[in-house]
Amino acid sequence: MKIMKRQLTLTSALATVMGTVIGGGAFFKIATITALTHSTSLTLFVWLLAGIIAITAGLCIAELAAAFPENGGPVKYLQEIYGSKISFLFGWSLIIIYYPANIAALAIVFATQAINLLNLPLANPIPLAILTTLSILLINWLGTRFSGWVQKLTLIVKLLPIFILIIASLVDTHPVQVHLWPLTNGTHTSFISALSQALLATLFAYDGWLSIGNLAGELKNPAKNLTRAIIGGLVAITIIYLLLNLSFLRTLPLNQIIGNQNTAFLTAQKLLGNSGGKILTLGILISVYGAINGHCITGSRMPYAMGANQQLPKAQFFAKLSPITKMPTNSLLFEGIIAIIMIFSGTFDSLTDMLVYISWIFSILLFIGVFKLRKNKPDLLRPYKTFGYPLTPILAILGGLFIIITTTITKPSLAIIGILLTLSGLPIYYWQNK
Questions:
Q1: pLDDT above 80 for 41
Q2: Position 27 pLDDT exceeds 90
Q3: pLDDT, tens digit (0-9, with 9 covering 90-100), for 327-350
Q4: Phi then psi for 399, rounded to 5 degrees?
Q5: 208 in a domain, yes or no?
Q6: Phi/psi at 288 (nearest 5 deg)?
Q7: What Gene3D superfamilies does the record point to (predicted)?
Q8: Which of 30, 55, 140, 363 is 20 to 30 A (C-alpha) from 401?
Q9: 292-323 exposure pattern, b = at least 16 Cβ within 10 A, e = fewer
Q10: Considering just the CA atoms, what is the radius of gyration of the chain in Å?
Q11: pTM of the model
């Protein structure tokens, strides 16, 4: 089996973290979150709380990433801590739910916004969403360097309109009053229900950073650069999200934001005029496109890593690299096909809620794994140790448990479907190990 080259730098890793995370959720989840909270204070609080949970999670995962800087990322960490069965089920959930659902959900967002911006004569966004997915697959088919270059470019382009929007809002002399305290919610639901459902929606906007571990085999000095990319990227993203959503709330009355997917466009239009609204929407399209590209980059490495470890049927098919670009083209195609199927079957919110729910189940196991490894392998080389241990992993575990328990109570059907899809990998696991 051919080995992937170490050709990615810290800049590429940081661009992948921020470029993958900052996507459609940054601009469109505000509509869902305000519909759940009916409050400016609770809306901003869940963005901050989600950022804190993501940062505590990142501090934990950074220790595991530095200790096991190899292809496979979180699946590799779980295998070292719990064995092959748990790691396989997580890998299985990633390749059939997490990555395809991310690609499909963001492709739907991209297509919907492109139709609105360009006034395309399309009643259904599905054909354009599929075309968008195919174009991303082609970019990744051309190789790591080209897809990495696209990721850096889209990150720069997507950050510019965000910063312009934030600055324009902060200097606005007639802002809408934003109440930060006390934390309140609308009368349509309980405080805990509003908080939990809004937090689940918010966490999608922070999702994607965990997959940077999949690129460890291609990253220069992975033990140090993985840690820097995860922690630095998450801190920067949290600050950007808080300021961006404050901009929305300072510019438009809350009743114009609730359930309104055009919040970002209307905000830019009010602050910058009609031309500004169109330019920002174009920036949003580039942002979402870059996020899809990031999920393709990291997602295609997961079937490859599992194939290389003989964890999937037809393992050699998934572990095959292109002789020219050294890309796992078969794995890339596999993920693309599932994503296209999901484009037909799901909506943005249902797809994103399911992938966040399943991801956090296994994330809790990873946080617990930091304690297990400290106890069972005290002599393991750890180039980085979790800051604030043991408080940091405890906070990450509590945050994850809150998300899982409340989601199971408030959205039982979503939880059951996600769990069943994950457990569908058990027959394949036993067959492969027969």
A1: yes
A2: no
A3: 777 888 888 888 888 888 756 566
A4: -65, -45
A5: yes
A6: -65, -40
A7: Amino acid/polyamine transporter I
A8: 30
A9: bbbbbbbbbbbbbbbbbbebbeebeebbbbee
A10: 21
A11: 0.73
